[in-house]
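hey so i finally got around to running the thing on that chain from the lab meeting. sorry it took forever, my laptop kept dying and i had to restart like 3 times. anyway pasting the input first so we r on the same page abt which one it is
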Amino acid sequence: MSTSTSTRPGAGAGAAVGWAVADSWTMTRRELAHWARQPVQVVVGLAFPVMLLLMFNYLIGGGKGVEGDYVEFLVPGMFALTMVFGLDATMVAVTGDLNKGVVDRFRSMPMTNGAVLVGRSVADMLQSFASLLVMMGVGLAIGWRWHGSLGGVAGAVGLLLLLRFAMLWLGIYLAMVAGRPELVAAVQILVWPVGFFSNAFTVPGSMPDWLGAAVEWNPMSATATAVRDLFGNAPAATAPSWATTHAELLALLSPLALVAVFLPLAVRRFGALSR
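ok and heres what got predicted. didnt touch it at all, straight out
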């Protein structure tokens, strides 16, 4: 069953936008209400990237080829990794709603098409921002510092959240393709290589030439490199390449390209679910 806003009061583009915002905010409040009923899931989501950061810093170590303070190299990379990981909750929630008939009930209402997905993404972005703040606090506690301007810090945070926004819409689309929660695990396997096939833990120059070149073009690597530069945490010596010297441009364009592809695909697939 398709939805329509034609039965609502008001007419014209302005009224349609207003209802779209109202519907999306209603769905966002629904997702936020789940936090109060499932606090353990929220805490685990916040704690998991912290455990990864502490594990790689204190237990695994590493930093092969990194010159300078490894903590200042690792922490921004972990910020980028955190923005990529953690999509399982989003994917499970989307597939759960699909299989429980919740989405069908929403679609029977005069609700803007895609408001459910927008609400889900807004709630997840709020949690991602909270997770990033927690990670920054832990980073400061273990010795990480930024040396750039406040404008640079704001730019770094913006690029990290942009990467997260792009990955969320990729996750939402893949969740609807998977269709069932039990298939989400198979889809998640695709996310792990993106996170670890990157420069989050070491410089590409320490890798074989072919692997290092491929790693530099990973969107997550571009974001990690860009935020290191903006935070003033760039390693003392890195091999110059087009990808590293234009990291901020790649960190901006790569997520925007993902959003341009997967946001409309997700909304279109959502609209076609009950046709």
